[in-house]
Structures are given as structure tokens and as C-alpha cells.
Amino acid sequence: MTAVPTHCPYCALQCAMWLHPDDGVAVEPRDFPTNRGGLCQKGWAAAELLDPGVRLATPLMRDRRDAPLRPVTWDAALDRIAAEVRRIRDAHGPDAVAVFGGGGLTNEKAYLLGKFARVALGTANIDYNGRFCMSSAAAAAGRAFGIDRGLPFPLTDVGTAGTVMLVGANPAETMPPLAGHLPRPGDGRALVVADPRSTPTARAATVHLQPAPGTDLALAYGLLHLVIARGLADHAYIAARTTGFEEARRVAAGYWPARVERITGVPASALETAVELLAAGRSRGGTVVLTGRGAEQHSKGTDTVHAFINLALALGLPGRPGCGFGSLTGQGNGQGGREHGQKADQLPGYRRIDDPGARRHVARVWGVDEADLPGPGLPARELLNALGTPGGPRALLVFGSNPVVSAPDAGRVQRRLAALDFLAVTDLVRSETAEHADVVLPAAQWAEEDGTMTNLEGRVLLRRRAVDPPPGVRTDLEIVSALARRLGHRDGFPADPAEVFAELRRASAGGVADYSGVRPDRLAAGEPVYWPCPAGGPPEGTPRLFADRFRTPDGRARFVAAEHRPAAEETDETFPCHLTTGRILAQYQSGAQTRRSPTLREAAPEPYVEMHPLLAERLGCADGDPVRVVSRRGTARAPARLTERIRLDTVFMPFHWAGEQRANLVTNSAPDPVSGMPEFKVCAVRLERDRP
Ligand code: SF4
Fold first, then answer.
1. Secondary-structure percent of the chain, ordered helix, strand, coil, rounded to 5
2. Which pLDDT tens digit goes with each residue over 287-346?
3. What atom of ligand 1 comes closest to residue 176's alpha carbon?
4. What is the pTM of this model?
5. Residue 614: pLDDT above 70?
6. Dist. CA 39 → ligand 1 center (Å)
7. Where are the domains of the chain?
8. What are the start and end residues of every segment in region (Disordered) (predicted)?
9. Quick one: which atom of ligand 1 is closest to the CA of 174?
10. Residue of 37, 52, 49, 36 lying closest to 9 (CA atoms)
């Protein structure tokens, strides 16, 4: 078989690669505008996931909670799920069965899962792990611009911008090929990084702003204050293209540099330098402001993203050539995963589920009565917290997600899963969540099935089948289709990805994320297609948004103002340090996949607690000593890693490991009131020396 062009199974950069199926499934980087022939360590090791030794190969089932999982036939496993769904639905109503999806699922899977929940199960309760990833950025972009596309311009625009600002993002470690687009020392461009840690990205910056965790909102208003005070705001742009500036100006007036320095710890001089660079970039190829999870995963995440959008609007960036505001999507299909209906409040086409017109359109495509479509369900955090409670879901079907490791306050999630009457997990590996399941279904993966993904630029990509799945493994679409049939829906749930994509295009027509004009032949040829791509429009869709107008009803972008407020949990005498968490180069998300890759396991075998040497001295521990990170919710264990690159009041833990090494045993699930995003990125902890 000849080499197959495809894309990486991991993050939202979706780097292009060749797969050589006849060569032990070898990976070779492929030139593409985003990765420009590069891959990170995870991409190079991606084929290791296809090894039968690391993945599930047969359905598993247990008859009682205290019995071990044992191999069973597909019929036995699917029959059991269908029987449990019917039993629980009959006893407790349709909302007692819930679905939890994932941001790594293809567009087709996300679409069919949303339809399966609303039509075959009749439940309102479907949400997905992307709620824990992009929801604050999505909520703010939707409100400010009328549309949420992570980058509203191709990534190559970042590569030509004179100034790039990154807030709470570390692409040098999380998406190394993306870092190739960033300004580099000596290339005449400027990089401004805001991060409590001196990450590899921050160390390459022209100026590094190192705010205390949870203070990015005040930082943004400090920058806006200076932009206005120095006469650097673009008042012609503000007048012509925005609304709400006066309120943002009023709030920004209260964030003079000395006050911002007191709140954030960032010196006023560094704020001044950052503002000069942001303003100067406009005449040097452009200025781009980008946020990541570090700014967004907070109980005030939506307001924080709005604050940086306000800054970008005041500088006149969005829609201007070479300039803009964006958010760096994390999960492989973090963009497409939030467009096609697996979100509690949405229908396909990124439509609101409570919009009567949207319900009418989608009901027509699905061939159901719109009155039978459920309304909004519980968002992810509330959904997980309600499992097994009186009136809450009694059964949960999980597809491609591992909340036992990846959800905040993970100990509580584990207890809620144990309280369920029934749990089924579909995954390619026997994840920590699968260990709690009554039925586990083995799913095919990226190189074994066709499917489309939408990368962080809103570009739709084709991931192709290069090898056959192992015997005994089925695709998620085949699984959903088989379950729907068992629940009485003989039609409407095809297992063929091309058929599902054709229906997805019809369902999305006229929506915010309109895919109706996305031609499969263009995707197969590797030609660019960016949504919105309405039928009858340009075949390449819309690479750049906002050139003439924003997608709000009046065509203007919105300033949305909010005051800084403390994190949901502040440090005190008992819990004197901030904990912040994040990703590292050789691991990905809950680690369920990457911890099974020999190459990546060797590169990053265990977690660590990054802390300042002076903090370690107070604790009486040396580099490598085992420590406990204790919060009001739980305790995580890992060796200490000493570095002066972190603030004295802050410790960092990567979140890719399981068991007692789970950073999310400690994190706070306090939600953002707008997006439902939990406060992953800051909570109060104390450190203790652990047993050796
Ligand atoms: Fe894969 Fe992301 Fe690494 Fe690219 S940067 S190779 S998409 S994990």
C-alpha cells in the first residue's frame, strides 16, 4: 500500500503526516501550512498506539460491581447496554441516561453522538470534556464577535505579525510546530508572554509578564489602561466597528500600573514595555493577541478572555489584515467537537438548542417532531456532580473521554461514577474511567477509520483510514449505529463516515458553523476549506473572518467589561501556595494514550511538583524528594522538581497521570458562571514531605 496522507491523532494543530502502512506503520512528517513539515515527539510516536499490546481488543463486561471485567461478545455487550438504558429510562425517565463525549472525536462522531442522545435516547443530558477546555474562550468570542472560531485567521498570519502576545499558553512545549510561527529573538519581531511560570515559550519572549495565578483579568485591564492613557487606542476603529467601549474605559480607569502591580506582581515597567510592543506591531506586519487555557480555565475565565478581547479591540486588531485576537484550541478536534451538537446547549451548526428556528431546522433534517427534541441539558461539571444523585442521571455512556483523571476534583467524580446504576465506556484503551465501567467497548482509532477534524484555525481536514482495525474492534460510528438499532431506530444512524458527513453538512446549513458547502473532494485533495463554508459560496469557505463586519446582529464587536475579583479559593495560613496545572511535551491530556506509548513513557515517566528552591528549603526537601500536594479536596503525590523559573508562591503539576499522582485530585471545580468552565488553573494548596 502506498503512503497515506493524514493528520496526527493528538492536539488541535493536527500536524500533517504520511503513514506508511507497509513499513510497520511508519510516520513521516508532511509539509502543511500549520506544521511546515514538523512534528513533535507525540506525533512521531503516534503509530505506537496502533500496537495491539497497548489497546483494547474485545468488549468487556462485569455482572456485578464487585466482579472483574471479563471478555464477552459484541452482541452480549451491546444487548446489555440497550437493556440497561431501557430499564433505567422506563424507571426514571429519559434524562436519567446521560452521555459524555470528547473533544478528540471526529466531526462525524460528535454529530452522530448528539443526535443519538437527543433522538435515540431522548435525553437532554449530553455534554463533553471540551467544556473543560475551550468553553470560556468560546463563550467570550461568541458574545464579542458573534462567532466562536478559535483562530479567526490562518495560523500563517501569526508567522508574519510584528508582535504576538500569548496569555497562559506554552506552545513551545504543547505544540512545538506552532512555536515556529512565533517571533524569535533577533528576527525583528516581538513576543509578549504572560504566564506565572518561566516556560520554554516565556524564556524566548521579548518581555515576560509573570502574574500571580488568577490575576490575568487585572493584567489585561492594566494593559488597556495604558493603551488609553498613552493615546494608543484606535478611536476610529472603536467608533466604526465596536460597541461598549465607554464601560470598558470606565473599568480600565481603575487599573493604573501601581495597582495592577500590587494585584498581579507584574512590574509597571514591564506593562509599559508590553503596551509599546503591542501598539508598535500594528505597523510592523500586525499585532496578534492569543489566549490559552492558563487564562481561560478560571471561575472568571470568560471575563478574562473578554478583557483581552477588549484590549485587542481598543488597539483596533480584530479584522485588520495581519492582526487579530484568537484562542489556541487544545484537543485534537476541540474546534469541531464544539460545533456539531455534543454540547449540552447546542444543536449542529453551532446552533443554540433553545432557539426555535434552530430546533425546527434540525428536527426537519433528523425527521423528528421538534417538540420531541429535548432542551438544554446539564453542563459537564454539573452533569458529573449529579450522577447517581436523587433526580440525577442513573446511567452514563462515555465516548472517548477519561474524566476519572481529567475532570476537576477527580475524587468526587470517581465517587459519583461509583454511585451510578450503570456505566458504559467506549475507548481505544482500558482507561482509568473504563476500570469503573460495567461494559467497556473497544473502539477503532485515527489511522483505522476515515473522518474529518477541524483544526484550531477552523480548517476542515480529512483523516484517512490507513490500516484495518484489529479483529474485535469497531468504530464509534458502528457502535452508536448498533446501539440505536437496538433501541428501535433502524434508520437515521449510519455507520459510514461519508454518509454521516453528508447529513452533518445539511444539518449545519444556515448555522454559525456552516459546513454545507464543504466538498469532500476538496478535503480529499488536501485543499483548504475553512468554515463558515455555506453551499454556493467560495469553495475555500472563509479563511479570515471580520474583514467587513462581525457576526453580531449589528455587525459590531462588543466590549464586555468586568472587574477583577479573587480566585474562588484564596491562599491562607493552612493552604499558603497556589497550584497551577498544565501539559508537558511528551504527554497528552489524561495520558490514557500517551502513557501507553513506550517512547513517550520513557521521555516522561512520572509527574513532578515544580517549586522554587526557597520554597523547597522551607519544606526541607531536595530535588526529587517525594512530596504531597494537599488541598481542601484531596492529595496528589509526586517528586519535587526545583526551579527558579516559577514564582515563590506557586507550584505546578502536570495533569497526565493517574491514581495518587492525579493533579486533579487537588484542583477546584468552582465554575465560571457563563461558560461552566471549572477553575483548573488555580487553587490553594499546602505542601508536605511524603514518605520515600
Ligand atoms: Fe501532534 Fe500536536 Fe505534536 Fe503536532 S503538535 S505532532 S498535532 S501532538
1. 35, 15, 45
2. 999 999 999 999 999 999 999 999 999 999 999 999 999 999 988 999 999 999 999 999
3. 5
4. 0.96
5. yes
6. 6
7. 60-133+333-524, 139-174+188-332, 577-689
8. 330-354
9. 5
10. 49
Helix (H, G, I), strand (E, B), or coil: what is residue 42? helix
CATH of 577-689, one of 2.40.40.20, 3.20.20.300, 3.40.50.2300, 1.20.1250.20: 2.40.40.20
Given a cut of 80, is residue 489 above it in pLDDT? yes
Which residues does ligand 1 sit against, CB inside 6 Å?
8, 10-11, 13-15, 35, 39-40, 42-43, 175-177
Q: Which of 31, 39, 155, 587 best tests ligand 1's pocket when mutated (most atoms within 8 Å of CB)?
A: 39
Q: Three-state secondary structure along 131-153?
A: HHCCHHHHHHHHHHHCCCCCCCC
Report pLDDT for 1. 63
536: left (phi over 0), alpha (psi -120 to 50) or beta: left
**Helix 497-508 vs helix 356-366: angle between axes, to the nearest 10 degrees?**
150
Q: Which CATH number fits domain 139-174+188-332: 3.40.228.10, 3.20.20.450, 3.30.300.30, 2.60.40.10?
A: 3.40.228.10
What rounded mean pLDDT belongs to the chain?
96
| C-alpha cell of residue 669 | 471545580
Pairing mode, strands 683-689 and 626-630? antiparallel
- Give ∠ CA 45-448-492 in degrees, rounded to 5: 140
CATH topology of domain 60-133+333-524: Rossmann fold (3.40.50)
Segment 497-547, tens digit of pLDDT:
999 999 999 999 999 999 999 999 999 999 999 999 999 999 999 999 999
Phi, psi of 385 (to 5 degrees): -70, -25
Q: For residue 359, what is its C-alpha cell?
A: 430546533
Separation of CA 588 and ligand 1 centre (Å): 10
Task: Give the max Cα distance, the chain.
Answer: 70
Residue 166, H or E segment? strand 163-167
Handedness of CA 361, 366, 367, 370 (dihedral sign): negative
Q: Return the residue whose CA atom lies nearest to atom 3 of ligand 1.
A: 40
Looking at the CA of residue 14, tell me the nearest atom of ligand 1.
7
pLDDT tens profile 457-486 = 999 999 999 999 999 999 999 999 999 999
Check: complex ipTM more than 0.90:
yes
